[in-house]
Specification:
Two copies of one chain form a homodimer. By secondary structure, chain A is of the alpha+beta class. The first copy, chain A, folds into three domains: about 80 residues, Arc Repressor Mutant, subunit A, CATH 1.10.10; about 160 residues, Beta-Lactamase; about 90 residues, 2-Layer Sandwich (Enolase-like, domain 1), CATH 3.30.390.60. Chain A contains 13 helices and ten strands. In chain A, strands 7-3-10-9-8 form a five-stranded antiparallel β-sheet, sandwiched between helices. Chain A has a three-stranded antiparallel β-sheet with strand order 4-5-6. In chain A, a hairpin with a 2-residue loop joins strand 4 and strand 5. In chain A, helix 6 runs antiparallel to helix 13 and helix 8 packs across helix 10. The first copy, chain A, is elongated. The interface between A and B is medium-sized, with 31 and 33 residues. The structure holds a DNA duplex.
Chain lengths: ~350, ~350
DNA sequence: AATTGGCAATCAAACAAAAAGAGTGCTAAC
DNA sequence: GTTAGCACTCTTTTTGTTTGATTGCCAATT
């Protein structure tokens, strides 16, 4: 099962070539483009070997080879060259972040946009909700006889508006009081801390127990998965790639995932805590569109996770470029955020 | 230029048939399906007349007829049958609104979703921001040395988070004071009223003039066009329709409009004040995808406009169904909102 | 034992020609 | 005004042929 050096090289060439041309790769083209000293017959037997091992596929007997999912996996982990960004690209990224950012969501928007532009793939991002964030402001006030509006602002300026069901019998005064109590109780606390508190609340604020529990639920929901904060860009770019050009089933499938913020939030929040760059290939995940790859990166500033960004595209994705861009954006973003804060 | 009754009937049949089959309509099929007592030759001469008048087109000499944009226009205004909704559909709509609505955006989301489901087209909605809405709460507080966060809550529970640039020299106290002043000044006022006030502010609150102006800008922007409030559903459904199936250029075009909330907000806020159902056909508008139709409806409850909803799809859209659904959803939505309030 | 040149076999893609079919427009008759 | 009939047009489908790319295998070579 161990691959010879030459097999690896050849596999790399096949994947490289297939990524850039979208055409099955022939033994001849390999000898011409990459390995002049060797004959095509030799490459052919190597290719046969790689196919045997499950790294390559043939569409029909007399066609060139196409990489298998296994091949892509090996490619991203071992085979591909790590390319950096050009000066120009770095410049473009910096410029993209230079525009006046109105709020945190705008920053995410900018990041996602430049990623999509530089890679030419659909890109997606989500600001992280660190459990270390503190609540800066909390307010509750009556909206309808049986509903109150909950307002939470955290350090990172993310705001949550949510309705709470309240008993009609409550007077405006009581609602106000509940708000005051909740505010003095929650303000200044870290989100994670609050979640951990769990059921303690029941005893202390018996009168407003329901309300307190609703507030805690809202906070928990917000930290765990904030689908509202998912930003998407370039959803149509999938059509720039030939494998999606005449297959509207595939496109439909792709769009159904990509346009569901729920699903995207799920995908982006998977196990990204410690890993920096994360590549998920093929339709292993129920939420992933079949025949797609997802490359994600988690960014942090000052040791705190500040968000997850990613690119979704065809299996035949330019991983090298994508990884470079994600790393580049991450670095610049982190610089900006650490300096500004 | 006046159409005979029979010409109108025939034109209606052609459009009906084309809408349901997506195939050019032949004289023979008309006599078979719709006008048994008449011969195909007669229909042919009528069709030739309608073509003369610009209502029909032929793809080539020996093909059936296809409706022109003019034909669609006439169809929606005069020709088409007005069909209602089935009991089942009404039931589905009611069910869709029965789920617990967390906030106003959820209501919009539900409406858009059920519209998309029932029509099988991409649908879009935007809550209206009536100038009559009053500000219920307004708050300003410091976020960074040179930025403050502005928070506005209106009767309809829409909240806007927005950063204001402030001089670093301002003390926290001053920010607080500005907030208090702004709150007491703006709270209770109608949005329209505030916009009209315009520059009066300059004199009165000289010390915090900048801040007051920023607040007013934010309010104006919010009333004029709130792109954040645009909700979209079923963007992939365009692919269910054959004219988009093998034309990825068209799809790309469509997606580029539909995925831009800016453009959608523009489209939805055009001149919808007094008209109830508004049909825009073909690519007259720069913001409209070419070869698309947009059907919008403005809903109101208690005399106040509460939002605009619409369906975007191919020219060959099932207008009858779409109009029925939009009307049906509007009616039910209005009922719910007027009762609840 | 690995490599190579040569060659038949395979298969998709491109092309061409022919046949089938759908629909029209026109005309002469009703 | 309506209709049957028919020639004509143009697309679609079918069928067959050619071309070209590529492989796998084998025997010869290094």
């Amino acid at each position: 099962m161990k691959l010879s050096e030459r097999k690896k090289k050849i596999l790399q060439y096949v994947v490289d070539d297939y990524i850039s041309t979208a055409q099955p790769v022939s033994s001849k083209s390999i000898t011409e483009k990459y390995m002049q000293g060797i004959s095509s017959a030799t490459v052919r037997s190597e290719l046969a070997g790689l196919e045997e091992l499950g790294y390559l596929n043939q569409l029909h007997t007399s066609s060139g080879r196409v990489p298998s999912i296994e091949a892509y996996k090996l490619y991203v982990t071992e085979l591909m060259d790590k390319g950096g960004l050009t000066r120009k690209e770095v410049g473009e990224i910096k410029k993209a972040f230079n525009v006046h950012a109105d709020n945190l969501e705008t920053v995410v928007q900018n990041a996602v946009k430049i990623i999509s532009e530089l890679t030419d793939y659909t890109s997606v991002g989500m600001a992280a909700h660190s459990k270390k964030e503190k609540i800066v402001k909390l307010d509750i006030f009556r909206y309808k006889p049986n509903q109150a509006l909950l307002l939470i602002v955290t350090e990172n300026t993310l705001i949550r508006d949510k309705f709470l069901d309240i008993p009609e019998a409550m007077t405006d005064e009581q609602v106000k009081e509940a708000g005051k109590l909740a505010s003095s109780y929650f303000t200044g606390k870290e989100l994670g801390e609050i979640i951990k508190l769990g059921k303690l609340v029941e005893e202390e604020f018996a009168g407003y127990r329901e309300i307190f529990n609703s507030v805690m639920n809202a906070i928990e929901e917000y930290v765990e998965k904030d689908k509202v904060g998912v930003v998407l860009e370039g959803e149509g770019k999938i059509l720039n790639h030939p494998e999606y050009n005449n297959d509207s089933e595939k496109v439909k499938n792709f769009l159904s995932v990509v346009t569901s913020k729920d699903k995207l939030a799920d995908l982006l929040s998977e196990e990204n805590d410690d890993i920096e760059i994360n590549i998920k290939i093929g339709g292993e995940d129920a939420d992933m569109p079949k025949d797609c790859s997802l490359v994600t990166a988690s960014y942090s500033a000052g040791g705190v996770n500040i968000g997850t960004y990613g690119v979704i595209g065809p299996l035949r994705m330019d991983y090298q470029k994508v990884v470079s861009v994600l790393e580049g954006v991450g670095k610049i973003l982190e610089d900006i955020l650490t300096n500004k804060k």
